[in-house]
Amino acid sequence: xxxxxxxxxxxxxxxxxxxxxxxxxxxxxxxxxxxxxxxxxxxxxxxxxxxxxxxxxxxxxxxxxxxxxxxxxxxxxxxxxxxxxxxxxxxxxxxxxxxxxxxxxxxxxxxxxxxxxxxxxxxxxxxxxxxxxxxxxxxxxxxxxxxxxxxxxxxxxxxxxxxxxxxxxxxxxxxxxxxxxxxxxxxxxxxxxxxxxxxxxxxxxxxxxxxxxxxxxxxxxxxxxxxxxxxxxxxxxxxxxxxxxxxxxxxxxxxxxxxxxxxxxxxxxxxxxxxxxxxxxxxxxxxxxxxxxxxxxxxxxxxxxxxxxxxxxxxxxxxxxxxxxxxxxxxxxxxxxxxxxxxxxxxxxxxxxxxxxxxxxxxxxxxxxxxxxxxxxxxxxxxxxxxxxxxxxxxxxxxxxxxxxxxxxxxxxxxxxxxxxxxxxxxxxxxxxxxxxxxxxxxxxxxxxxxxxxxxxxxxxxxxxxxxxxxxxx
Amino acid sequence: xxxxxxxxxxxxxxxxxxxxxxxxxxxxxxxxxxxxxxxxxxxxxxxxxxxxxxxxxxxxxxxxxxxxxxxxxxxxxxxxxxxxxxxxxxxxxxxxxxxxxxxxxxxxxxxxxxxxxxxxxxxxxxxxxxxxxxxxxxxxxxxxxxxxxxxxxxxxxxxxxxxxxxxxxxxxxxxxxxxxxxxxxxxxxxxxxxxxxxxxxxxxxxxxxxxxxxxxxxxxxxxxxxxxxxxxxxxxxxxxxxxxxxxxxxxxxxxxxxxxxxxxxxxxxxxxxxxxxxxxxxxxxxxxxxxxxxxxxxxxxxxxxxxxxxxxxxxxxxxxxxxxxxxxxxxxxxxxxxxxxxxxxxxxxxxxxxxxxxxxxxxxxxxxxxxxxxxxxxxxxxxxxxxxxxxxxxxxxxxxxxxxxxxxxxxxxxxxxxxxxxxxxxxxxxxxxxxxxxxxxxxxxxxxxxxxxxxxxxxxxxxxxxxxxxxxxxxxxxxxxxxxxxxxxxxxxxxxxxxxxxxxxxxxxxxxxxxxxxxxxxxxxxxxxxxxxxxxxxxxxxxxxxxxxxxxxxxxxxxxxxxxxxxxxxxxxxxxxxxxxxxxxx
Lengths: 474, 586
Ligand SMILES: Nc1ncnc2c1ncn2[C@@H]1O[C@H](COP(=O)(O)OP(=O)(O)OP(=O)(O)O)[C@@H](O)[C@H]1O
Ligand SMILES: [Mg+2]
Fold this sequence. Notes:
The structure holds two protein chains of two kinds. By secondary structure, chain A is α+β, with helices and mostly antiparallel strands. Chain A has helices at residues 54-61, 101-111, 116-129, 145-157, 175-190, 206-212, 243-257, 282-288, 306-318, 325-331, 336-348, 363-370, 373-387, 389-400, 409-416, 421-437, 461-469, and strands at residues 11-21, 27-38, 43-47, 69-74, 77-78, 86-89, 163-167, 198-203, 215-220, 225-232, 272-276, 322-324, 352-355, 358-361, 405-407, 441-444, 449-452. Chain A has three domains: 11-288, P-loop containing nucleotide triphosphate hydrolases (Rossmann fold, 3-Layer(aba) Sandwich), CATH 3.40.50; 296-370, Arc Repressor Mutant, subunit A; 390-474. In chain A, the strands form four sheets. Chain A has a seven-stranded mixed β-sheet with strand order 6-7-8-3-9-10-11, with helices on both faces. Chain A has a four-stranded antiparallel β-sheet with strand order 2-1-4-5, covered by helices on one side. In chain A, strands 12-14-13 form a three-stranded antiparallel β-sheet. In chain A, β16 and β17 form a beta hairpin. The radius of gyration of chain A is 25 Å and the shape is globular. Chain B has helices at 2-13, 15-18, 29-53, 70-101, 103-118, 125-135, 141-168, 172-180, 185-219, 234-243, 247-276, 293-300, 302-330, 337-366, 370-407, 409-424, 427-441, 445-471, 474-482, 487-521, 536-546, 549-580, and strands at residues 221-224, 227-230, 523-526, 529-532. In chain B, a hairpin with a 2-residue loop joins β3 (523-526) and β4 (529-532). Classes of the chains: A alpha+beta, B mainly alpha. The structure holds adenosine-5'-triphosphate (ATP) and magnesium ion. Residues 20, 30, 48, 50-56, 204, 420-423 of chain A line the site of adenosine-5'-triphosphate (ATP).
């Protein structure tokens, strides 16, 4: 069932799954049954929304963590216990601050019992390759972010890994530095100056993926699964402004934001061949799952604050209520990573909807943008009570309880049922932020109690009736 | 800044200045010469110590009061501290490692640490001493080992906790880097775990050693029933001098004590802190760095560099390669079944031992007379009052003083090092001296012991209050001036909330110290007489004296339980409050 079952795959993951134990004894699934192989000669980019399990998948493929089910093969043989010849470049660099640049690069060789003379020679050669000669005796803290990541590259390349894994290697860098480093990486790769057979890079930056990769895999979330898999046909060097590049970026945008809709595919000959269409293997594999392991069905709140939501709606309204997603990100000078949750929140609240990669403000959204502070609270409250499950639950419980208050533990328990531990915290924070703003309740963090709040007084009934007349279509 | 000047001064004396025409004479000969001399002195010291320790047991070592004997006594005290410290460090690594990496063990090891930390160490003194003397019959080593073990129990817990906490806070990606590049456990320890926990360990070591002095001074000379244990050392010197009312000797002793502490600071802690700078996990280089002239000296020594190159470096390389070789094969094999069984057997044995101990304790406790228990109960109340009065008095004078110092940077610069020295002089060393004064002035030990408790504990509060006052952001202070918040208002709105977390830290430490100190503050052998007052500490000491081990056990457990309870009920809650509500985000 996997597209590429050639025998020359370096790493092949067969029906791997990953779930984590929860404090309450149950397990939560983070990666659902997935097949994936890494073939030589390719840069593979893994794209997906924040928190969908990209890093988890990378760690399984690199042998760092074991899958809870399925098998990982290294050159066709099952991998159990031993560490394969791979290297990882980390987002946070993960250098040892107390070792000099040279010592940092020598450390993996020490672990492989390479003698001192040979070790030094290889380390210096690698430092030279990544353009760090002259910095051997510096400590990482003396270097800029870009230079630190060069050390990260050198440390990875010095062991001559068969597969080089990278987990968002450029996201901690500023735009120009990232661009520069990306270019140099590509040059080393294309000119075969790095002793590496394949590169597997995790990113949330679509342009970065399209710039570098020979194959792009888009991951969906809750739990992670492959949504789409493309072989890129664009020639290097790739031009960001070329129509094919833009077409591809646009296509991937749509696949990521509206996974269930049909999208016009890019040209297979010149741009990208679609191995797995949007939606992918998903539906049938999901049904196959044993029921012991829970997957999330409870509504998941995007991590956006009310301020951000209001800001975006205002901005959209000023733009005439309609904007291309890509342009929006550009104009707001925001990462898609940061923008997407806000848009998702607007959609969830019925203030906007997404269509073909465009954001369209809804009548409710327009009303919200035009309202004054007091009126906005009313509108926000209506939207929240209509669309947000957990706020609905809180509101009805508070109304029913005699003292109109309840401990937050209760909602933690509800969320615990459906989400991983740290996600519970984020869901809770978001719900508190929205709920307090909507004046559904007051929250006293110290005592951990939610108390019913006085609903905001609507000033003129006209706005309200107009509002309830237009039912949202989200 | 002063350190820089000093090292420059040393260079000024180098021959280079005088015979500048002779290019062959190098600056770094001077450090080499010093290091060589230090080596010789160390060797001699080892010889002397060996001779004394392996000598026959002399229960009543005569303590000479001549100032000339002081350097040797200081040396002995220092040696005890050092050995106890090395033991603590070894224990720290083992305990911290297991607690951090074995989730099942962690669940009970960490609460255990909390309890152990609250047990008053001094109540162990008699038991430990008797056991050790029995273990090494006829050798001075027994008493020495007892003293060392006691200091060990006084200083090990916070170090173990610090190491454990550091291990737990190593960033995931750093761990993953070590794993994906196949570090052996040795390389992981040397290049990641040890450096990462270095700074926490250094600071906790400083605190622990300061605490070690406190216990050492108390246990160098004490009476157990008819037996009089004495160890040559600073503590016994001071006690002897005070007993004889010999003021010049007392002054000599206190001066030596201070000198030792200052030297230790200059030659050990400052260099170590300056060296540990490089283990700071920070993204950018900080502008303010600690410096130490001793460290500069060591770094400039050519001979040391040579020795390092010839011995340490090749040895390190050998070890690293050895563990790297063995590591590659090690991962695949699981623990063999007999090892697992052995471990289980061991666990069962430990549990059985614990069970046996609990049963025995219960038996002993049930055999105690009611009257004794009642007395201990009354004592508990008295000591509780005394400890809290001491804390209150301490807080009352240190808060205004500390805030005044903290608000004036110039004053702080002078007062802080002074307070540091005052705080690190072990109160137990001064007990005999203070007692002498108290007896001259008159007034019983009932009130006098409060003074003694205060002596040991107020510094912790002062210290922390100064730190807290310094940490209040300037803009907040200015804001208060703008709104004309004065007097009481200013205290309520700005100062007290600002220093609250620090104050709590200071009070917790002070409270623990005061409970411990009560054991020696409420009951004293002095000039052949016994001075005592009602209190749990006195009960413990008296039970020790009379060899009433059942009562000793009961009273010790009472005190430990009280301290643990107070920690749980009061201090931990205040701590949490301090961490949540009164936290100044920077
Ligand atoms: N050790 C763990 N225990 C429980 N849940 C975990 C654990 N590690 C990760 N998760 C959960 O797995 C999910 C995926 O995490 P992962 O870090 O792989 O996502 P990601 O796509 O890399 O996100 P990001 O874009 O933030 O890097 C998250 O919801 C996270 O909460
Ligand atoms: Mg990630």
